Amino acid sequence: MSQTPHDALCAIALLAAFADGEPSDGERERLKAFTGPDSPISDEVYQRVIFRRTTASQEAASLSDPEQKRQAFELAVGVCDADHSTSPAERAFLVELATALDIPQPDATALIDQVDRLSDDSPAAPLPAAIVPAVAATAASVAVGASPEAKRAADVDSTIRTHAILCAALELLPQGLASAAIIPIQTKMVYSIGKQHGYELSAGHIKDLIATVGVGITSQIVESYARRLVSGMAQSLAGRVLGKSMAKGVGSWSGVGTGAAITFGTTFALGQVARQYYAGGRTLSAIDLQSMFRSQVDQAKGIYEQNLPLIQEQASKLSPSQLLSMFRR
Predict the structure, then answer these.
(1) How many domains does the chain have?
(2) What residues make up the domain containing 249?
(3) Integer angstrom CA distances of residue 87 from 67, 114, 212
């Protein structure tokens, strides 16, 4: 199979997304929407994965550089772990992929277990204080004697902004492993907002809400990795792996800040939807939630620019190894 390393990496990401069976209709449509001539994943790559015309071993054969192979395996682990701890089917896929990529099994197992720890972290556990962005406490600006509703609204504002800034900062890190922390952090945000409105939420409920809103959990991680490939944010891949051939067709996904802006908008909008949903007694329909989410994503664009200095500052203080050690239980 003659193809570029970039195509092989994208195919491996999609194979990982489908490793434990067929995705939902919504997830499939979201992944499909991320393909085409102006997107990182080509239609040809998508079709050969969907119609099972390729395997992990075949795609791995197109990668010769050790750094390419490491990036491919890291990408696959992040995708497999996007919506839950790695399932037996996903683990079997990753074992096969590691063999094809010449990655020692102890190293492969260690990475899988590390990323699993992020997903296993309880949504009830607060963010480690050492990685909470330096966001001024919104609640402190509420006048003395303000109503409980006003204080709660200020606390929720601070919660949403804090988590959106942190998730956007992760997108600016050169290590692809950072993307694996985005879903757990979004889950913590929704849990916190629910609790502020009197609800104790399970991880399953939160993930169902995220899916209902229209944020594909698996596709969100695939998109994050694909943006990294296109923008050259992964320093080890820049130029040497992707090469000049990737300059054509980058389109609207180019630029280091694109991933941060998208993730900030997604996290901010998800937080605003959770606020309305739990404040209203969980009575909003799926259609209402989806419409509200799209509207909030649009509003987040201007808010992202206002918070960009904080996002950049936060990114300068983070590393995936920090996250893994802080989230370990």
Answers:
(1) 1
(2) 5-327
(3) 26, 14, 22
